[in-house]
Design a protein that fits this description.
With 334 residues, this protein is an alpha/beta fold. The chain has 2 domains: 223 residues, Alpha-Beta Complex (2-enoyl-CoA Hydratase, Chain A, domain 1); 81 residues. The protein has 11 helices and 13 strands. It is globular.
Length: 334
């Protein structure tokens, strides 16, 4: 059974450190740390287990660290940023596993972009080596990409020419719609299994900036500081610790495997009590965390249950009260 519980103290594939207004998310995948047996996670390739940790880190940065205004995503390995989703993992997985894997990785990268757009927490990709497939899609989810100009490091989407499949995490869409790469250049890029490097990558708008190896870290730090200065994140906000999840309080489920259904019930408290001072016990956050966790566990572990029946129990007036409370926090930048 796949669990989506994670904490920085137990990460196997990521290192998270906070330096004032800048956080560093360093990808250093344990080759022997695959979620299931049968493959090695070479070249900083990833599987669902790697992305579960990334999801946890992005949520903690957003909720627990209001002081963080820039998040630098980089690699802890020499000459390689990320080789993308592990090919052997994909080859040995059932179709439904691959579908849900791609859903989850898309949601995680959308969450990174949402943190930039709505929480003033900008993501910067410090690409310090070759960056292929899902690795480049991870960089594309960031707002700014710095590529090391070492005459060998490239960005690429090799799954298109080599495997004949479309990138599963928004690669071609973000290249054109987000980065503004000309469509004809994007077409050429998609045929280049060896990728594009240096001034060509910059000229095609595949990256934002180049830096030679000797100045790479300095350039990344300067850019991260500049992005932090532009942030609208409130300076006096108090973080909310994402304590271990307590299940089955506000969201419960009954599984009927014979019928292939899940009955999900969302419960509303009798009255509006407390606010953000409750931290992770604040009902809108506690309920949402429970629901998110249940959805993820059902998708990964109960693929035969194809019909979800969702109902709510409680006073709609209480929900409206919480809505007004949340609107008040939003109006004051909370």
């Amino acid at each position: 059974m796949v669990s989506f519980d994670a904490h920085p103290d137990g990460y196997r594939h990521w290192r998270l450190r906070i330096e004032g207004s800048i956080a560093w998310l360093v990808l250093d995948v344990d080759e022997q740390g695959g979620l299931v047996p049968g493959y090695e996670l070479k070249l900083n390739s990833y599987d669902l287990g790697v992305d579960i940790e990334l999801y946890d880190a992005t949520q903690r940065l957003r909720f627990e660290h209001p002081e963080v205004r820039t998040v630098v995503v980089t690699s802890g390995k020499d000459k390689v940023f990320c080789a993308g989703a592990n090919i052997r993992m994909l080859a040995g997985s059932a179709h439904e596993w691959k579908v849900n894997f791609c859903k989850f990785t898309n949601e995680t990268r959308n969450g990174m972009e949402d943190a930039t757009a709505n929480s003033g927490q900008t993501y910067l990709a410090a690409v310090n080596g070759s960056c292929a497939g899902g690795g480049y899609e991870l960089a594309l989810a960031c707002d700014h990409i710095v590529l090391v100009d070492d005459n060998s490091s490239t960005v690429s989407l090799p799954e298109v020419p080599l495997l004949g499949v479309l990138p599963g995490t928004g690669g071609l869409t973000r290249v054109v719609d987000k980065r503004g790469t000309r469509k004809d250049l994007a077409d050429v890029f998609a045929t280049r299994s060896d990728g594009v490097k240096g001034t060509t990558a910059l000229g095609w708008k595949l990256v934002d900036e180049l830096a030679p190896p000797r100045k790479f870290e300095e350039t990344v730090r300067q850019r991260a500081a500049q992005l932090a200065e532009r942030s609208t994140r409130p300076v006096d906000a108090t973080g909310i610790e994402l304590t271990p999840l307590r299940r089955d309080r506000y969201v419960t489920s009954v599984l009927d495997r014979e019928a292939g259904t899940v009955a999900i019930t969302l419960r509303v408290p009798d009255t509006v009590t407390g606010g953000l001072e409750q931290g992770a016990e604040f009902w809108p956050l506690a309920m949402t965390r429970e629901l998110d966790d249940l959805i993820l566990r059902l998708r990964a572990n109960e693929t035969e249950l194809g019909t979800w029946i969702i109902r709510t129990v409680g006073d709609p007036g209480t929900v409206e009260g919480y809505e007004r409370l949340l609107a008040g926090y939003s109006a004051h930048g909370g």
